[in-house]
Amino acid sequence: LRAEAEAKAKAELEARAEQETKQRQEAELRADAEAEAKIELEARAEQEAKQRREAELRAEAEAKAKAELELEMEKARQAREKLEAELKAISEAKEKAEAEMKAVQQAKAEIEQEIEQVREESQLASSADTTNQPAATDESQQQETNTDIPEANDEQTETEQAADQEQEENNGRDLENVIAALLKENKLVQTYQPIIAMFEDEQQESNEIYQTGLFAYDEPEDINESLLNISGLSLSLQQSINQWALRQIFARITESGTEKTPLRFIFNLTECWFSDITLFQWLQKILTQTKKYSPGKAIIVSTPLDLYLKHQKRATALLNTLHKTYLFKIAITGIDSVEDIEEHCHTMLSKLLIMDITQLNSLNETLSAKTKVNDDDEQENMSLLQSLKSGGIQIITTDIEDATILTDAISAGTDYALGSFVGEVQDNLTDMSNLESMELV
Questions:
Q1: What would you measure as the largest C-alpha separation in the chain, in angstroms?
Q2: Which of 45, 261, 371, 399 could be joined to 379 by an S-S link, Cβ 3.0–4.6 Å?
Q3: Given this model, what pLDDT does residue 232 score?
Q4: Which are the contacts of 430, defined by CB distance < 8 A and separation ≥ 6?
């Protein structure tokens, strides 16, 4: 019984052990299954995280590409707008150039027509003189046979006047020959007389302004008197002198090497500019050569009022082109009467008047057609000078030879002063190099 009991107990113990082994195996299998499930879950989570990161990177890349595309599209739109604006500007400039060229061609045609008319009139006058010469000879012979003393004296006086006139013409030709020789031999110098600003203006450009002129050293006084005002010389000599003087000015503008010069030069126009278009065509060539320096901004063209009125149509076309196309400033000089000066400033596109103290006082004494409103909202008349200044026009007063004239000019309201008292004529400018450094044809 005891053996059976022990065998039974042993069998139960073995069964229990087998059961525990089976349970342990099942637990291990379950643990392995859970571990595999966990590994799969982690792998799935990692895969999902990876896919999420890839999705985020893809979204960022798409957003960046979209932003870059929008930026490129914006740049393309701006470039297109800029190109359209440039094309429009080019088109407008082309139309303007065509209009100006048409105006120049028309002016040239008018000038050529007038020259032809003058030539025909000259030929007719020559023919008339030739036809009337025998009659004049007969009249002279008749006067020689006449015994009337007063008539003989008149004939002698006319002969003397003719001889004097011929002598003056010969002297004029000799003078021109001397000046032409000096010009050819490069014995002339360009002079510069400073123009001094009387009042400081923050809006006004701080530029040095010079009145240009000509001088010949070691030459007779009559030579330099003629060089002070070359309008009395022949048109061909005027043209040669103008070309020479402008070359000096352009050399001054370009020799610094900078695209903007602080210097401003007043250059005097003479009648040769309106006799034909040759001088203007030459100037256009020079302006093309020096385009990057914008030389027109540094040049003030001084135009005598009587010369403008004499050649008004051609002068208007020339001044319009110089001012609007090449940015030249226009100054009016040679003002005999201040009447209609406001209208002349408008038609000549001028913002600068050059006059002496007498003319400046006349501007102050003359009432303008315009009126101004005072502090009491009442209208009152203003002087012609006040009206001009309200329109942005400035005054250069010349012939300032002493302190009294300078004081009077300042009191009258001048903007600039020119004369030996405020600045002597000089033949060179400080810190400037050799003018021969740039060749202009």
A1: 209
A2: 371
A3: 85
A4: none
CA 356 to chain CA centroid, nearest Å: 27
Say yes or no to pLDDT of 121 above 80. no
Q: How many CA atoms lie within 13 A of 303 on its CB side?
A: 33
pTM of the model: 0.60
Percentage of residues in the chain having pLDDT higher than 70: 78
Which pLDDT does position 83 carry in this prediction? Answer: 85
Give the span between the Cα atoms of 360 and 324, in whole angstroms. 28
- Determine the Cα–Cα distance for residues 305 and 336; give it in Å rounded to an integer: 8
Q: How far apart are CA 337 and CA 358, in angstroms?
A: 11
Q: Are 295 and 250 in contact (CB under 8 A)?
A: yes
- Look at 149 and 396; give whichever has higher pLDDT: 396
- Tokens representing 198? 């009387």
Picking from 257, 262, 258, the residue whose alpha carbon sits closest to that of residue 205 is 262
Residue 68, judged by CB atoms within 10 A of its CB (0-12, 13-18, 19+), counts as exposed
> Reduced to 3 DSSP states, what percent helix, strand and coil does the chain have, rounded to the nearest 5?
65, 15, 20
Is residue 422 within 8 A of residue 441, CB to CB? The reply is: no
Let me know: does 188 contact 216? Beta carbons within 8 Å. Answer: yes
Q: According to the model, what pLDDT value does residue 256 have?
A: 67
Q: Is 328 helix (H, G, I), strand (E, B) or coil?
A: coil
Q: Which helix (H) or strand (E) holds 31?
A: helix 2-145
347 burial class (0-12, 13-18, 19+ CB within 10 angstroms)? middle
> Which tens digits make up the pLDDT trace of 130-184?
444 444 444 444 444 444 444 445 555 665 555 555 555 555 567 888 888 888 8
Output the average pLDDT for the chain.
Answer: 81
- CA-CA distance, 109 to 105, in Å (whole number)? 6
Q: What angle do CA 285, 266, 307 make, to 5 degrees?
A: 85
Question: For 240, phi and psi rounded to 5 degrees?
Answer: -60, -40
Q: Give the DSSP H or E segment for 262.
A: none
Q: How far apart are CA 195 and CA 405, in angstroms?
A: 15
Asked whether residue 219 carries a pLDDT value surpassing 70, the answer given is yes
Helix orientation angle between 312-320 and 2-145, rounded to the nearest 10 degrees: 160
Percent share of the chain, pLDDT over 90: 43
Half-sphere exposure of 361 (CA within 13 A, CB side): 8
pLDDT of residue 109: 73
